[in-house]
């Protein structure tokens, strides 16, 4: 079966819609790739397949091959040069060592119903049995290359897609040919508000009842980073995700604010830029020129790989820590 090529499978779940599961999935995938892992992303949100848009590959189509579908590549394994932000140096004027930035990035590919629909604006009006069949087909007919990690972006709730997904995965990953601990567990996404927390608690109970290990909770939209002054304002309250994780005895992976520069990166492909003096990941970020001055080439250009431009996003260091924690936790399970 195609899943035999995959070392670890992680689910991204939430009982609430609109909390940013696809955004978190995208950044987990980009960060794993930057850490040198080969990554696949499977989008089973059948009525709202947004993964193609997040990775900027929505015009692509899957190819048929003997035995199944070939996923759409985002980028191949390669070596990236020093990120643009490293050339700005540190706040005291010293330059960073580009050798510490250059690294091999792992390959990244995606599969989504969005690649199969004739028109990306087509509505998917399916009853439960057809959704169930589609999820099973995604798990059995996608010819993934050898992967270190497969991330599964799920729809909100605990409905047909989730039940079909878990039934198929538990059966496939418990066979004699499956790698040990192949189904690593689930990352649960919430936002800080009480109304979101109450829905996401149902997802944690779902994981408990179905025997899926919760790898941790990510509190998304925990504040808004002003694009002018870089100050973070907690427009949706804060701390609810940490309290929920503690109540359920599961790890809390971190809080992720809303960064307009990341939105611009996804929507327009523009490399993130920040006000002068903003420090991102221990180095000065790409500076935004004043309105009177000329626009920097980094701000103006949309050339280059998504994974390369993401390195200059303020959220990249946060997800580097989150992914590092996840990978170490998964390694300790074996």
Automatic annotation (TrEMBL):
<dbReference type="GO" id="GO:0005829">
    <property type="term" value="C:cytosol"/>
</dbReference>
<feature type="region of interest" description="Disordered">
    <location>
        <begin position="73"/>
        <end position="100"/>
    </location>
</feature>
<dbReference type="InterPro" id="IPR028600">
    <property type="entry name" value="NUBP2/Cfd1_eukaryotes"/>
</dbReference>
<dbReference type="GO" id="GO:0016226">
    <property type="term" value="P:iron-sulfur cluster assembly"/>
</dbReference>
<comment type="function">
    <text>Component of the cytosolic iron-sulfur (Fe/S) protein assembly (CIA) machinery. Required for maturation of extramitochondrial Fe-S proteins. The NBP35-CFD1 heterotetramer forms a Fe-S scaffold complex, mediating the de novo assembly of an Fe-S cluster and its transfer to target apoproteins.</text>
</comment>
<keyword id="KW-0963">Cytoplasm</keyword>
<keyword id="KW-0067">ATP-binding</keyword>
<keyword id="KW-0004">4Fe-4S</keyword>
<keyword id="KW-0547">Nucleotide-binding</keyword>
<dbReference type="GO" id="GO:0046872">
    <property type="term" value="F:metal ion binding"/>
</dbReference>
<keyword id="KW-0411">Iron-sulfur</keyword>
<dbReference type="InterPro" id="IPR033756">
    <property type="entry name" value="YlxH/NBP35"/>
</dbReference>
<feature type="binding site">
    <location>
        <begin position="15"/>
        <end position="22"/>
    </location>
    <ligand>
        <name>ATP</name>
    </ligand>
</feature>
<keyword id="KW-0408">Iron</keyword>
<feature type="compositionally biased region" description="Low complexity">
    <location>
        <begin position="82"/>
        <end position="100"/>
    </location>
</feature>
<dbReference type="InterPro" id="IPR019591">
    <property type="entry name" value="Mrp/NBP35_ATP-bd"/>
</dbReference>
<dbReference type="InterPro" id="IPR000808">
    <property type="entry name" value="Mrp-like_CS"/>
</dbReference>
<feature type="binding site">
    <location>
        <position position="226"/>
    </location>
    <ligand>
        <name>[4Fe-4S] cluster</name>
    </ligand>
</feature>
<protein>
    <recommendedName>
        <fullName>Cytosolic Fe-S cluster assembly factor NUBP2 homolog</fullName>
    </recommendedName>
</protein>
<feature type="binding site">
    <location>
        <position position="229"/>
    </location>
    <ligand>
        <name>[4Fe-4S] cluster</name>
    </ligand>
</feature>
<dbReference type="Pfam" id="PF10609">
    <property type="entry name" value="ParA"/>
</dbReference>
<dbReference type="GO" id="GO:0140663">
    <property type="term" value="F:ATP-dependent FeS chaperone activity"/>
</dbReference>
<dbReference type="GO" id="GO:0005524">
    <property type="term" value="F:ATP binding"/>
</dbReference>
<keyword id="KW-0479">Metal-binding</keyword>
<dbReference type="GO" id="GO:0051539">
    <property type="term" value="F:4 iron, 4 sulfur cluster binding"/>
</dbReference>
<comment type="similarity">
    <text>Belongs to the Mrp/NBP35 ATP-binding proteins family. NUBP2/CFD1 subfamily.</text>
</comment>
<dbReference type="InterPro" id="IPR027417">
    <property type="entry name" value="P-loop_NTPase"/>
</dbReference>
